[in-house]
């Protein structure tokens, strides 16, 4: 409970006052909902609000919780046309200041939608919100990683193959979370069905409607959030992850499967993909179904990791148990998709 620890709060306030131009206390720290991997807080001061993201404490998997990578990608992307992010302000890699590494960024005022059906939005306006979503993803994929200083942000090529290996290993090594039959099958199926084509761009890794902040009243994105999984990777795999909202009911994340998109006035998947293709110069998305199966597997593996953190007592969110319960349903969706491809 770092937000109530007077020693850590005093240490943090001294550090921010010394290192962040214009930061003036007294401050109040409020834990935000979400942030399954990295705890996230609002810092309230008399003149301004900030957002702080930090590593959790306790036993951590080696490659997870890389807040320094988040800070680096935010710094590189900030100010790039079409890819809005909160301004990064400070990175601290001294555990003594607030219990673990953290970074500070500006607070962006706006709306986060937790339901992809957008019940809060007028029916006539919903298409524009989906257009803003896909436009920002296409703009991200058009960025030249080398030109913005991220040429070494990940390995070039074989992204999906490496991701399959990474998440398979992370799943298999997390013994505390237990085994799942559908995930065991996917670990064997995926390497045997990898696409033969490849390309590389900067990818977000977790691009969902609830990971962006929209303008308070307009269908315009003010900030893309949660860059923990960003790297150099295959843009079509990134796109397919975003499309999972069309392929899933609401489980661990919001889903549109089974909803009447025509009645809701929400663009269907084909329309959504076509807009993306126009903006990145594609006629179609090759191997889309494989990328969907891969991303369902990856999502199930992420949820499996949350289950493991809950068992070990290092889960960052009070909702961890609810997310952990979704491992089997999402894993089964992945295996069902794989079986359709094989058939």
Descriptive overview:
The protein is of the alpha+beta class and 343 residues long. It has two domains: 2-106, Phosphorylase Kinase, domain 1 (2-Layer Sandwich), CATH 3.30.200.20; 123-342, Alpha-Beta Complex (Aminoglycoside 3'-phosphotransferase, Chain: A, domain 2). The protein contains 13 helices and nine strands. The protein has helices at residues 6-19, 67-77, 95-98, 126-142, 159-173, 181-189, 235-242, 244-247, 261-264, 269-280, 288-312, 320-324, 327-342; strands at 28-31, 40-44, 49-54, 88-92, 102-106, 201-203, 212-214, 221-224, 231-233. Strands 1-2-3-5-4 form a five-stranded antiparallel sheet. The chain has a two-stranded antiparallel ribbon with strand order 6-9. It has a two-stranded antiparallel sheet with strand order 7-8. A hairpin with a 4-residue loop joins strand 2 and strand 3. The longest helix is centred in the C-terminal third of the chain and has 25 residues, at 288-312. The chain is globular.
């Amino acid at each position: 409970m770092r937000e109530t620890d007077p020693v850590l709060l005093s240490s943090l306030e001294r550090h921010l006052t010394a290192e962040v131009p214009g930061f003036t206390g007294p401050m109040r720290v409020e834990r935000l909902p979400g942030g399954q991997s990295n705890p996230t807080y609002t810092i309230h001061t008399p003149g301004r609000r900030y957002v702080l993201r930090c590593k959790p404490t306790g036993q951590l998997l080696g490659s997870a919780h890389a807040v320094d990578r988040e800070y680096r990608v935010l710094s590189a992307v900030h100010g790039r046309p079409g890819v809005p992010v909160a301004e990064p302000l400070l990175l601290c890699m001294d555990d003594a200041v607030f219990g673990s590494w953290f970074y500070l960024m500006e607070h962006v005022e706006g709306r986060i939608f937790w339901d992809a059906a957008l019940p809060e939005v007028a029916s006539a306006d919903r298409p524009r919100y989906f257009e803003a979503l896909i436009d920002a993803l296409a703009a991200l994929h058009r960025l030249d990683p080398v030109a913005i200083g991220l040429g070494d942000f990940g390995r070039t090529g074989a992204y999906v193959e490496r991701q399959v290996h990474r998440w398979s290993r992370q799943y298999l090594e997390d013994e505390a979370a237990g085994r799942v039959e559908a995930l065991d099958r996917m670990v064997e199926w995926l390497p045997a069905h990898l696409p033969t084509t490849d390309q590389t761009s900067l990818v977000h890794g977790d691009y969902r409607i609830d990971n962006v902040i929209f303008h308070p009243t307009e269908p315009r994105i003010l900030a893309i959030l949660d860059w923990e999984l960003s790297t150099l990777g295959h843009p079509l795999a990134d796109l397919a992850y975003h499309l999972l909202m069309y392929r899933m009911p609401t489980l661990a994340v919001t889903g549109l499967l089974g909803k009447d998109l025509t009645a809701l006035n929400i663009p269907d998947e084909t329309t959504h993909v076509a807009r993306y293709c126009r903006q990145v110069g594609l006629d179609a998305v090759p191997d889309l179904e494989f990328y969907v199966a891969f991303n369902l597997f990856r999502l199930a593996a992420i949820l499996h990791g949350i289950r493991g953190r809950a068992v070990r007592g290092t889960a960052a969110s009070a909702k961890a148990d609810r997310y952990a319960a979704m491992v089997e349903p999402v894993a089964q969706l992945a295996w069902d998709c794989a079986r359709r491809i094989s058939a």
